[in-house]
Amino acid sequence: MNRYIVNVLLTFVVVLGSKLLCAQNLYDLNTIQKIEINFSQPDWDYQMDTAKYGAEDYLMASQVKVNGIVYDSVGVKYKGNSSFDSTQIKNPLHIELDAFKNQDYLGYTDIKLSNGYGDPSMIREVLAYQILKNYMHCPLSNFAQVYINGNYIGLYSSAENIDKNFCADHFYSSQNTFIKCNPIVNPGPTTKSNFKYINTDSSSYSLYYEIKSKNGWNELVKLCDSVCNNSASLDNMLDMDRVIWMLAFNNVLINLDSYSGVFSQNHYTYRDNTGHYNPVIWDLNMSFGGFPFAGAGATSMGSLTVPGMQQFPSDNHATDTNWPLINAVQGNGTYKKKYIAHMRTMLNEFFASQTYETLANNLRNLVDTAVQSDNHKFFTTLQFQNAMDSLTDVGSYKVPGIKSLMDARVSFLQSTSEFSSNPPAISAITSSVPTPVFNSNFYITAIITNADLNGVTFGYRFDKTQKFQKTSMYDDGLHNDGSANDNVFGVNLNMSGGQMQYYIYAENNVAGVFSPARAEYEFHELLASAQTPSTGQLVINEVLAANVNNIRDEYNERADWIELFNNSIQLLDLSDLYLSDNLSNLSKWKFPVKTSIQPLGFFMIWADNDSLEQLYHTNFNLNKDSGILILSDGSGQILDSISFSNQTTDISYGRFPNGTGGFIPMNTTYGYVNNNYPLFSPEQTAHSAFIIYPNPATQGVTLTFEGAKTVTVFSLTGQQIYQGHGREQYQINTATWSNGIYLVKCGNSIGKLVIQQ
Q1: pLDDT in tens, 507-562
Q2: For 328, what's the count of Cα atoms within 13 Å in the CB-facing half-sphere?
Q3: Rounded to an integer, what distance in angstroms lies between the CA atom of residue 580 and that of residue 583?
Q4: Does residue 196 register a pLDDT over 90?
Q5: Rg (CA), the chain
Q6: Who has the most CB within 10 Å: 65, 72, 493, 592?
Q7: CB under 8 Å, gap of 24 or more: what pairs does 733-739 form?
Q8: Which tops the pLDDT comparison, 191 or 697?
Q9: With 60 as the cut, is the pLDDT of residue 425 above it?
């Protein structure tokens, strides 16, 4: 993803003295953002109202200032359902900086602003996100003061947009199935985005969901079928830990304008590269009891009184088939214990400890002046000042004070049998080797009391893009755990990566517990022993400086890339190494800490001048016309360097033989052994004896040529993966092929095929 600053802003920065460098983080919690919108249309409000009732198109604002940085030709529209009303001045807003031209604010293109409807405290959304971020992936959030044509409209809460960039940041891909779970019709008890299976016809689901990816309706049907009809295997399709955290959060905070409430709305789900769907909560402005409708069946709003919210049961909807995710969790003994464990963690960390009250008061102090000067707020200043403790009438119902709700909630939940049950205790977690050698065997033990002998699970992974694998820990005397039944549990492991992220879950017949308590969102770490590279051990192996049709990064953008290769049989530590395209600044981009490269392994880095991104993206590009690339250590010693002149589009520059040879132009071998196969180039396409279409392809390709020819397809590693024979036209089914680049030989001619599923 190119989080660029447009040329007009670069010019602006130069003229006015590095204004960009002074621009504050859009989601800095300690600073209220200032957003100034200017419309040239005198009837801008009428046009925005009309658009909201119609196709919800953006109206072009002539200028928008974000913390003093000026943007022209910006898209603005009203958003929201119950929070929008054409008769009110302060409506929720969606600002899209790049609706009409390429521009962004420190990488962000969308600004979503909620108007505080239904929230006398003015802090519900921001406070709730500050709590949620400790347990699962969620948007950043803070406050903004909004001005339109010079008039102060009021204080808003601002929450990060959940889009494909958000998915790339948190789930390391962006082009898989992505579903917004909100009814597109006016919500009611019968319109729930609840993953309930209807039938095999995807059109039956169209009123309850929006597909934000290119495809996904059939995948949604399969997901609903699994949730309702195959819940025993849900862990293979859903990230169940994140589902459980979502449901636990909704219950503890009485966040019912959510999956757990009457409409089952305000959540997204994204399928990552492991094939698992990941829930994302959004729209928290009515959390802490601001929306007192739990639902019941398919017809009732399920209205709650304030005492009903304070004593809201942890197992609400446990058997109501209109909430199948809740059914799946409550109907599975282990999931239910994990759910209570997560609820207990949130309750203890933020509410029983009164930490939430400190956070709330800090936020209230921050916004106090902005609220008092907000003449368009929905409540009086006195109601704002009393909103922690006092009830406030909102239409036909009462919104509780945040403190009066949550203090009573703590008392109620702690009095229930689920919360008073005694879970196991986990302590003294020890690795037999503090820093295991890569690919060596070792074991981990822990003292675990009050647990079932078959109730201890060890979850682990070797990369944050992976899902946790799960295996059992034993107290049987056979797993390096000492004597049998001595409360020491052990697990035998192999160090298959540079670092292991892990957690332990233990349960008995009534309760469960995690170590660490915030698992799987947080975890313990164990680093493998890794040595500092010396010259020759680690080399720059291949670079692509002109990526037009080659592989895309997790943001679905084609960017320059760099491949390193470890020539040694040792795990090498990259943490103190640097890459640069400038000899006078060797420390331009530093590898993240705890980064390593496996023996005889490859390590890929995107060179796209975008170090804000979450994986490995440098803060410089490669120059396709000519350039230099330097790999150095923290002392300034150069471990490897290359220089290159004009590069051919989609042809890389790599070592042959792999890892040791000199650099030659070659067909790209991203993350694989380099080869010297005949080059494919754009010139070959124009004069090729055959044509491949479509290219890139997904389900299949067609080749056209003269006469009868043999068609052979090779991977870039030289493996033959297909061969056939045809006359004048030949079709190949590529539906099961992996994404990547393939060489196609038709007769004596060679072409390139790109698969993008």
Answers
A1: 999 999 999 999 999 999 999 999 999 999 999 999 999 999 888 899 999 999 99
A2: 25
A3: 7
A4: yes
A5: 29
A6: 493
A7: 733/699, 733/700, 734/697, 734/698, 734/699, 734/700, 734/701, 735/698, 735/699, 735/700, 739/551
A8: 191
A9: yes
CA–CA separation, 721 and 678 (whole Å)? 18
Would you say how long the chain is, in residues?
Answer: 757
Q: What's the burial of 403, exposed, middle or buried (CB within 10 Å: 0-12/13-18/19+)?
A: buried
Domains of the chain as residue ranges with CATH: 7-159 (no CATH), 164-365+374-420 (no CATH), 433-512 (2.60.40), 538-667 (2.60.40.1260), 682-755 (2.60.40.3080)
What's residue 680's pLDDT? 59
Q: What is the 3-state secondary structure (H, E, C) of 283-321?
A: CCCCCCCCCCECCECCCECCECCHHHHHCCCCCCCCCCC
Question: Is residue 423 pLDDT above 60, yes or no?
Answer: yes
pLDDT digits (tens, 9 = 90+) for 553-584: 999 999 999 999 999 999 999 999 999 999 99
Phi, psi for 727 (deg, rounded to 5): -125, 120
* Whether pLDDT at 35 is above 50: yes
**Bond before 657 cis per omega within 30 degrees:** yes
Asked if 509 and 587 touch (Cβ cutoff 8 Å), the reply is no
Q: What is the DSSP letter of 231?
A: G
Q: Which of 327, 207, 219 lies closest to 269 in space, CA to CA?
A: 219
Q: 691-704 burial string, b = 16+ CB within 10 Å, else e? A: ebeebebeeebebe
Say if residue 650 is exposed, middle or buried (CB neighbours under 10 Å; 0-12, 13-18, 19+).
Answer: buried
The reported pTM is 0.88
Beta bridge partners of 596: 573
Measured in whole angstroms, how far is the alpha carbon of residue 56 from the centre of its chain?
26
Distances (CA, A) of 629 to 173, 367, 657: 27, 48, 20
Tokens of 711: 């068609």
Contact 485, 454 (CB under 8 A): no
